[in-house]
């Protein structure tokens, strides 16, 4: 609200206050002049009794007044005189300063309210000397700073829209290509009649201009970061505003600028997104499930189970491609129609194998299965595809293994800027139902049986540091990047078998490896605490 308006309200309030004071004075006078009859007209919502010698107190309907007009006129004139005196003494100037000093800014504001977090989980801080920890913390802080820059954290700024502004402008959605001139849509001024209408605009990372300026147009600052436009005609001014263009002076594939738009005491800001256009990368889904989906798995020392899995797949999908990543100690040949078997260095690891398998997929989707699963009569890949095609925003869709619909959600707090965040995995936690699919829910992680959108999963990837144990970690890395759902009725079986001696040895995570894994999350995920 403009300061003049606030001052006006203050003047009215002061005027009413002065009248009230004078009324009180007259009430006291009546105590000394007992022979003077005083009549009080009261239109209060809840009248109180007023008793005094020779006083009549009459409760009236609200907003009525029918006596002592001369006294009312006298009070008004006295109040006006006192207000003028106060104004001349500078009271209004003082109030204007107070109001201006307490006004709200329009931004941009940077969030600095991050506070330390704490959960009953495992601490990720490494058990090292203070000197070494200080060095690690310094490196981590620098990597986190660079991460925020790369992720465009500077684009997420809070802007406050001023109330009752006569300025019209684009609130959001104004995107320009770097170094290219673009008309700013929607600029206009809507105000009362004035002798001269004047506005100004300013930017930081670009220049402003008005297209097709004619002789006599009052435009100052062409092709500069500060532009001023004035006219005696509002229609003409708005015509000039409709031709204001912005050109960025820096090249960046994704950054932003902020424009300040000012008229008299009114100022607004609006964001300008500077973004390089991208080229679509599409995958032809073909005409059937064989051209839409590739089945992928990772194996280690379990060839019996692997061959049983392949046999069950071929019972229902004889032509679909199967990709196998294998880091066994002594690889055995795996042959068959449309099977790709990739041999890795021995014990290279669980997530490295998943990365390898996903890297070789050339279909729109892939179906991840463990090497000891088994296809059932009710295992229908087409059901996965139908849901994913109906909801293009979905990146991962999980099912159930032998009736176990395992899923979870994360609770994450960013925590203190220096200490790091806190992450908790909530089993059976979900966000809400997937719209139009009553048997599906939106979650953060699912079981090791899911249909993945190939390009989306590749962007996140599987961390090859995790060799023996890893599942939730992939979904941690994809938090906020992957839209994940879980559905009932999308089932696959699990083979009954006894764990192999060597397999169990390599599969079991040692305490020392757990400590290394926690430190890995400390640095990589900027975490202070984690709870699984």
Secondary structure blueprint with pairings:
Layout: H1 3-32, E1 38-42, E2 55-59, H2 69-88, H3 91-101, E3 122-123, H4 130-150, E4 167-168, E5 175-176, E6 182-183, E7 188-189, E8 197-202, E9 206-210, E10 218-220, E11 226-231, H5 234-241, E12 244-248, E13 254-263, E14 266-275, H6 289-292, E15 293-299, H7 303-316, E16 322-326, E17 339-343, H8 350-359, E18 365-368, E19 373-374, H9 381-390, E20 396-401, E21 407-416, E22 420-427, E23 432-433, E24 440-443, E25 445-446, E26 450-453, H10 454-460, H11 472-477, E27 484-494, H12 501-507, H13 511-524, E28 527-531
Parallel strand pairs: 1-2, 5-14, 15-16, 15-18, 16-17, 20-27, 22-28
Antiparallel strand pairs: 3-28, 4-7, 6-12, 8-11, 8-13, 9-12, 10-11, 13-14, 18-26, 19-27, 20-26, 21-22, 21-25, 23-24, 24-27
Helix pairs in contact: 1-2, 1-3
What does the model show?
This protein has 532 residues and is α+β, with helices and mostly antiparallel strands. 30% of the residues lie in helices and 26% in strands. It has 13 helices and 28 strands. Strands 15, 16, 17, 18, 19, 20, 23, 24, 26 and 27 form a ten-stranded mixed sheet that branches. The chain has a six-stranded mixed sheet with strand order 5-14-13-8-11-10, with helices on one face. Mean pLDDT is 83; it is low at 1-7, 29-41, 52-68 and 86-104.
């Amino acid at each position: 609200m403009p300061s003049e308006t606030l001052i006006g309200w203050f003047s009215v309030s002061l005027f009413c206050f002065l009248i009230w004071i004078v009324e009180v004075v007259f009430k006291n006078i009546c105590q000394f002049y007992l022979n003077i009859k005083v009549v009080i007209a009261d239109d209060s919502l809840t009248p109180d009794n007023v008793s005094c010698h020779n006083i009549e107190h009459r409760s009236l309907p609200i907003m009525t007044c029918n006596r002592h007009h001369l006294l009312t006129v006298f009070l008004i004139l006295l109040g006006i005189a006192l207000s003028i005196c106060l104004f001349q003494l500078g009271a209004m100037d003082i109030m204007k300063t107070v109001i201006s000093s307490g006004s709200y800014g329009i931004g941009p504001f940077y969030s600095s309210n991050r506070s330390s977090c704490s959960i009953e989980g495992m601490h990720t801080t490494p058990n090292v000397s203070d000197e070494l920890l200080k060095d690690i913390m310094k490196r981590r802080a620098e990597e986190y700073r660079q991460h925020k820059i790369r992720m465009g954290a500077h684009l997420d700024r809070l802007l406050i829209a001023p109330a009752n502004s006569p300025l019209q402008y684009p609130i959001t959605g104004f995107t320009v290509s770097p170094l290219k001139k673009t008309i700013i849509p929607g600029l206009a001024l809507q105000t009362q009649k004035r002798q001269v209408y004047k506005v100004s605009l300013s930017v930081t990372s670009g220049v402003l201009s008005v297209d097709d300026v004619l002789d006599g147009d009052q435009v100052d600052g062409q092709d500069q970061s500060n532009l001023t436009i004035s006219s005696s005609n509002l229609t003409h001014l708005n015509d000039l505003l409709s031709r204001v263009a912005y050109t960025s002076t820096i090249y960046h594939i994704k950054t932003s600028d902020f424009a300040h738009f000012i008229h008299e005491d009114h100022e607004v800001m609006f964001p300008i997104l500077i973004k390089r256009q991208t080229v679509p990368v599409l995958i032809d889904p073909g005409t059937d499930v064989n051209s839409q989906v590739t089945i992928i798995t990772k194996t280690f020392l379990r060839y019996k189970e692997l061959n049983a899995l392949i046999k069950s797949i071929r019972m229902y999908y004889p032509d679909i491609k199967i990709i196998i990543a294998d880091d066994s100690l002594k690889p055995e040949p795996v042959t068959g129609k449309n099977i790709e078997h990739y041999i890795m260095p021995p014990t290279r690891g669980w997530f490295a194998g998943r990365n390898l398998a996903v890297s070789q997929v050339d279909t729109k989707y892939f179906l991840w299965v463990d090497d000891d699963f088994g296809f059932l009569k009710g295992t229908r890949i087409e059901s996965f595809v139908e849901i994913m095609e109906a909801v293009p925003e979905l990146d991962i869709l999980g099912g159930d293994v032998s009736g176990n619909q395992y899923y979870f959600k994360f609770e994450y707090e960013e925590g203190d800027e220096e200490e790091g965040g806190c992450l908790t995995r909530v089993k059976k936690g979900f966000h809400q139902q997937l719209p139009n699919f009553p048997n599906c829910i939106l979650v953060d992680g699912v079981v090791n049986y899911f249909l993945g959108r190939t390009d989306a999963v590749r962007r996140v990837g599987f961390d090859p540091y995790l060799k023996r144990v890893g599942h939730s970690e992939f979904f941690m890395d994809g938090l906020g990047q992957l839209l994940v759902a879980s559905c009932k009725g999308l089932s696959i079986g699990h083979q009954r078998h006894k764990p192999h001696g060597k397999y169990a040895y390599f599969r079991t995570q040692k305490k020392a490896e757990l400590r290394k894994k926690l430190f890995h999350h400390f640095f990589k995920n900027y975490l202070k605490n984690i709870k699984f």
